[in-house]
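ok here's O-fucosyltransferase family protein:
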Amino acid sequence: MAFQRRRHHYLQRFRLMLPLISAVAGALLFLFALLSILAPSPVVTDHIHHRRNNSPINVHTDGDAIGKPAFRVPSGGGKMDRDVWTSRNSEHFYGCSNSSSKFQKAQVITKPDRYLLIATSGGLNQQRTGIVDAVVAARILNATLVVPKLDQRSFWKDSSNFSEIFDVDWFISYLSKDVKVIKQLPPRKGGKMLSAHSMRVPRKCNERCYINRILPVLLKKHAVQLNKFDYRLANKLTTEYQKMRCRVNYHALRFTNLIHAMGEKLVHRMRMRSKHYIALHLRFESDMLAFSGCYYGGGEKEQKELGAIRRRWKTLRKSNPDKARRQGRCPLTPEEVGLMLRALGYGSDVHIYVASGEVYGGEETLAPLKALFPNFHSKETLATKEELEPFSTFSSRMAALDFIVCDESDVFVTNNNGNMAKILAGRRRYFGHKPTIRPNAKKLYRLFLGRSNLTWEVFASGVRIFQKGFIGEPKELRPGRGGFHENPSTCICEDSMAKMDKHSGLRKIGKDYATKKNVPNDDLDVDDESEEPDMDDDEDPNDLVERSMSNETISDYENPNFEEPELDEFPSD
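and the structure:
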């Protein structure tokens, strides 16, 4: 009986306390909800938070903020766990683009009365991709290639022809075993010039596509000109054709003596100033910013100016700057590029060559970058007006000078993933994996956004983590990933014996890999694209634009599509 009374008493007390417990629990839930709303979004990964907890935080006190981390940028690059001027293990990799013994000579396979002409499109580097692919297309068709026509009407409005940019005699001579190349169409019997039939080829056109679409016309007309020829050949081809692409791009295409000599003079003047230098393709001109649809805090003036330029591309949708920034489609500001480089270990004493047109915002925009890197150079500061006079009114020739200085730099930094960035990235992989840095803008943007709440140590640690896989080291990109001009994996071999000697016993090596002295760094790279790709006229230009502007991480290349949007005056070079 006494037990039942005590039990009843406890139940009564519990019922009385239940509203109090509910009120406390409700208050705690409300507090947690409020904290989740007010708390800032994470700016770095768990790895960075871990490092932050183990790093000393320099706290400075002032009247406004007590205990706020001090973001003080050091003048030096700090101690790195790597040589910032070289790529790890690059000595074990080299370009290998020779054809096999089964690859027949041009004299054997070239058919009479088959002539292929192409008209390129875009700026210098976009046209370069077209020239490379045209040689392979001529080989597929067993045709004679007429020296390509350069684009003289697009955004860059450069009147130069092929022989004023490239060494045409070397081009013809070097490729003589692969494809027969002539300077112009031969006359017909009776002295009349042969006229070419003009047509278009779809993008991503593979070998079967050329055989089915172009060859029947070529057999009937004898001479065919393919217009707007850029990215008109499939990214994936058989090994022999991929190696042929490399022979054209890295060996047959040489600049004229005039351009080459001036470019080497600029390189020499950079070397006179410093043993090492960085070349930066800044690409922060108004046309690129307008096309990207990004916003950089310039208020109504910026929106009005860039909006007027953006309206040139009538097929572009209204931009969403915040979304573009989150997705990594916005070029970094000059200041952000400078902060990234400092975090990667490059101090204020480093010399930087900037390949750029007129930067949006002028000197005011460049000031933070110049403050971080005072040794700031360009064509215009290294050469006199008189020296640049033969080039200054020709955009492609000026771009060729930048190309040479960037190609020969110790470190190349690109601020967008356009044609020049891709071509140079592939070239630098082929010729020894020289460091090539592309900002992982998709991940870095949060760091830049929240840097005022971070110490320099935490910020720099985050940059180094996010840039792994974006600095041009061997095997950053898996074979077959990305565009071939950016990742020519078929043409890069590994000196496996040297690597085995250095890392003996560290890992099991497959039988095929171990028994060959030089092993291509590639999977079987056969064409798996559809025989009859859709004509690009039917594609949504906005979808193409969105893909082309993306600055994704390497791991995001699960379904790569590197076709450039077919928009007039696309500012990607």
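+1. Residues 34-66, 505-517, 522-569 have pLDDT under 50 and may be disordered.
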